[in-house]
Amino acid sequence: MGLKEIFLLLFLLLSLSINGNVVEGRGSISLSKEEDLEIERLLKNINKPAVKTIEDGYGQTFSCVDINKQPAFDHPLLMNHKIQMGPGSLPKVIKEKKASSLGMSLKTGLKNGGCPSGTVPIRRIKKEDLIRAKSSPNFGKGYASNAQAPDQANFQFALQSTIKDDIDKMYGSRAVLNIWQPKIIGNQNSASLVILLDGSPLDEIRSIHAGWVVSKGLYNNFLPHLSTAWTNDGHRKTGCYDVLCPGFVQVSKDLPVGIGFSPTSVYNGTQHYMIVIVHKDPVNQDWWLFYGDDRKPVGYWPKALFNSTFADHANILQWGGIVYNAGIKPWPEMGSGHMPSKDQQYRKACYIGGMHILYKQGDYIPINDGSPRHMIRSSPSCYAAWVDQQVPGEDYAILLGGPGGNNC
Description:
Distance between the termini: 41 Å
Number of helices: 5
């Protein structure tokens, strides 16, 4: 897919989300003959020939695609990119593979070992996925372009930020996130994320995020999914979720971005968590995504996708919850759907613990109570975030979440 086709796809998704004529409850949309033909042509370019297809059990199909012919390499800046199967150097926090004591690590992956050797799983995009963009105006884009703007009409936040001015250049972020299934309706989204940004103005911001997202518009179910996004310009022309546009290079043959999670955490009961690491490779300068207790490399965002400072380091790191709502009330739940408090047990709220930062090209350093941080709470009556140091085995953690409602 060439640069023109990439822009056409992103424009098509945006135009469908704004101008489409959806019949509520039926999911139908009126398309012109030209629009319908354009969708069919784009689908043919997006869905590469598959050696094998795998159903995930939650209504999604993953195509096993030649690793060197995956959609990432349709990006004009990656045409001659040499694929990396792992970073050139790994810090101690990734090598040691220490489990968290916060609950049960949620093992996930495609059945029977996933795709054959030499191929990688890419979520197969259906025609209705593109048409469903109407019911989710945020479809295809990430949150990061709004992560510093809690007054945005369609977003609410409960975040903690650490800023370069407080410390040093930042080259990675590690965190433990317990996984919930917050209730959403229609085209709402609810997420718990690790976010890395360069601090540019919102319409130019470079960023990456990773974590879990519940989004009917993106995944056509109400489960949390391993979700990523990136942009090089505030999502004006670049970037998307997962692999909905060229950019993210998938290397794992059994753990694809977009895969669903089940079971999820239980209020005041068993907690299921995920470990997420976004790491800047000091050798090849690519941004890598690792998942789970075993620090499995999922894939990476090549350095070539970014310019400005973000090609080298992040200026802002954020951890927390974000919800999206396009005019449907009540606002969705965040996390467990319960407000955190200073006295609340970690089994009752969404938590993000085990937070580490790679300040320099060395090893990850844990955040502690004395680390500089800034809390962002956009609607304290609906969502909140608290520091909590009573989470077992973690020196520092935040509790976050809330019920949403009609007055956010």
